[in-house]
Specification:
Shape: globular
Structural class: alpha/beta
Number of helices: 9
Strand order of the largest sheet: 6-7-8-3-9-10
Strand content: 25-35%
């Protein structure tokens, strides 16, 4: 069953059209990695899925709800489609456990004690149970991003959107975040990941999508996508990426 269905998505900023008609169907339990050069529109697509960006035209259906319909409760949709950002977006004045439990208490109306239990179990899942009382400034970038993943999981979403979750991290901290993401994928979490991490896309994705100039240029299984790219622009892109 489709968890996310995108139909003829367009997005413009004034005269600049950054998304030029994208169709995409993501099934429940699927891990989809989106790659492409900077400015290609890949993060914009992700941000349109939970309407952090408002599409100019087209339809996006998340878990059966058309997010472009005025009657749709977008906050409800956002609880089902968790988001992990490049820059963590943790609250600096709240400790780690508090950052993770804020959503369940405020949005899901969970009791404080139940939220704390859930929060601690999620921190354990991402390997940070011992940091529950710490504040974000006391953590490394990789630890902050793992807290951000725990926070996204705290609302028990049906899909998690990752917007370049490792691009702000020092190289040696990338692995610990990807490891948590690998674990989520193995547990069957539906994931849409905008990433520069080709190894992760190759190993973990069910499907890899190449977006350039606001359109999907190619999509395929990781094996075909990386070993046998048909699109010349993709071949050129993969060649440049592998040189670094």
């Amino acid at each position: 069953m489709s968890m996310i269905k995108i139909i003829d998505l367009h997005k413009s900023y004034g005269d600049l059209e950054v998304i030029k008609g994208i169709d995409l169907d993501i099934k429940s339990g699927e891990v989809v990695c989106i790659i492409g050069p900077s400015g290609s529109g890949k993060s914009t697509v992700l941000r349109c899925i939970n309407r952090l960006e408002t599409p100019t035209s087209g339809r996006i259906i998340v878990d059966g709800k058309d997010i472009m319909e005025p009657a749709t409760n977008i906050n409800h949709v956002r609880t089902e489609a968790g988001m992990v950002f490049q820059q963590f977006n943790l609250f600096p004045h709240i400790n780690v456990l508090g950052n993770v439990t804020l959503g369940p208490v405020k949005v899901r109306k969970m009791s404080r004690s139940d939220a704390d239990k859930l929060g601690l179990s999620l921190l354990e899942k991402v390997g940070l149970a011992d940091k529950a009382k710490n504040y974000p400034e006391q953590l490394s970038g990789g630890q902050k991003q793992r807290v951000a993943i725990a926070r996204a999981l705290s609302l028990k979403p049906k899909v998690i959107l990752f917007d370049e979750p490792t691009s702000a991290l020092d190289p040696e901290l990338v692995g610990e975040v990807l490891e948590v993401m690998r674990q989520l994928a193995s547990e069957g979490m539906t994931m849409v990941v905008v990433t520069h991490e080709m190894g992760f896309a190759r190993d973990v994705a069910d499907r890899v999508i190449f977006i350039d100039k606001g359109v999907i240029q190619e999509q395929n299984t990781p094996k075909e996508f990386f070993s046998n790219p048909a699109n010349p622009r993709l071949r050129d892109f993969l060649g440049k990426v592998s040189e670094h």
